[in-house]
Amino acid sequence: MDSDIVPNRSWPVRVYVHRTLSHWLTTIPSTVRSLLTLWLSIAVAVASAQNLIPNGDLEDYAPCPTSNSQIDRAAPWFNAFVSTPWGPGPTPDYFNECTSLAGIDVPVNNYGVQIAHSGSAYAGFMVYLQYSPDFREYMEVQWTQPLIAGKCYELSLYLSLAETIGNTASGDIGAYFSGVPLVQAVWDTLPVVPQLDHLGGFLADTLDWIHATGVYQAQGGEEYLTIGNFHSDMTTGLLALDTLAMGVAMSSYYFIDDVSLELVKLPPDGGCGTLSVEDPALPAMWWLLDPSGDELMVSTSLPGRVTMTMWDLSGKVVLTSGFDQRATLGIGHLAEGLYAFELADPAGTTARGRFIK
């Protein structure tokens, strides 16, 4: 994307609308005008106080970052790897226009080219690194009031794949809510199951920000949010892409911005509606596309022999195969494009995936 693109500034539009609305209010009866004015005041107050996550837009900093691995400069965000405040080791990064260091600048930095979703700052974290097994980076933040048991909260965030260091998309970014901070004593995957998982699905866009959301029903007392990949390398869904980083180790690194957590109204059934929660009953599946595009490696936790069916975008079946839990499939004869596939065991349990060749 062009590095000279700047975000649209919408405040003049809001001022215009406000003036037009004020003029319109003077033309209606005073009783109705009073009620509307009260309603608008309440709506604005509620909207401005919804986000429970402090510094969710990552705009507040102290001081300006001077190096990689300084997520702590955007307090109260911090790194789950606490052996040292920053590096060496898994350390999320903080990018801000205020810096004089090109490597962590916005919009152009060592990881890619991306304007902030809002303001002038964002963060970034590693999801997968081929030559460092189960290497993970996690961002954490604490809010001031514990979540209320039984209440529903919507998590919202924006993600973008970094094209310079991230040549592989992942579909396994998750969020874990806890009453105490998680501590990553070693470099690998945190041993917890995220309540919200696969946020945003496969995130392969390097040009724009992808909006990912999930709804969580609180157990009560949660004060911390941890964001990252909670799957092992063997169970992490990966999609190899043709980006600037091709030809080096497969890696998946994401920019993140505008994280919010808001209390939402309970639906009539008393639950939290459709949740982006990982179902432990679903079979885990992992696949890896060889950089040459000639082989697809597939592994699944489905027991026994499974049948694989693959389709192209027109719906035509282009490949069928049977194997036990893992296989390396030759796909060199397939044309470039997007493909979907399904694994099924004799009991009818299925797992699905897709990749770009």
Blueprint of the fold:
Layout: H1 11-25, H2 30-48, E1 78-79, E2 93-96, E3 108-109, E4 112-113, E5 121-129, E6 139-142, E7 152-161, E8 168-170, E9 174-178, E10 210-217, E11 224-228, E12 238-240, E13 251-264, E14 285-289, E15 295-300, E16 305-311, E17 317-324, E18 326-330, E19 338-344, E20 350-356
Which characteristics define this entry?
mainly beta; 357 residues; five-stranded antiparallel sheet
Q: Taking strands numbered 1, 2, ... along the chain, how are they ordered across the largest sheet?
A: 2-5-13-7-10
Number of helices: 2
Q: How much helix, percentage-wise, in residues?
A: under 10%
Radius of gyration: 23 Å
Order of helix and strand elements from N to C terminus: HHEEEEEEEEEEEEEEEEEEEE
Shape: globular
Largest sheet: 5 strands, antiparallel
Structure in words:
- The structure is a single chain.
- The chain is mostly beta strands and 357 residues long.
- It is 10% helix and 32% strand.
- The protein has two helices and 20 strands.
- The protein has helices at residues 11-25, 30-48; strands at 78-79, 93-96, 108-109, 112-113, 121-129, 139-142, 152-161, 168-170, 174-178, 210-217, 224-228, 238-240, 251-264, 285-289, 295-300, 305-311, 317-324, 326-330, 338-344, 350-356.
- The strands form six sheets. Strands 2-5-13-7-10 form a five-stranded antiparallel sheet, with no helix packed on it. It has a four-stranded antiparallel sheet with strand order 1-6-11-9, with no helix packed on it. Strands 17-16-19-20 form a four-stranded antiparallel sheet, with no helix packed on it.
- The longest helix is centred in the N-terminal third of the chain and has 19 residues, at 30-48.
- The two termini are 22 Å apart.
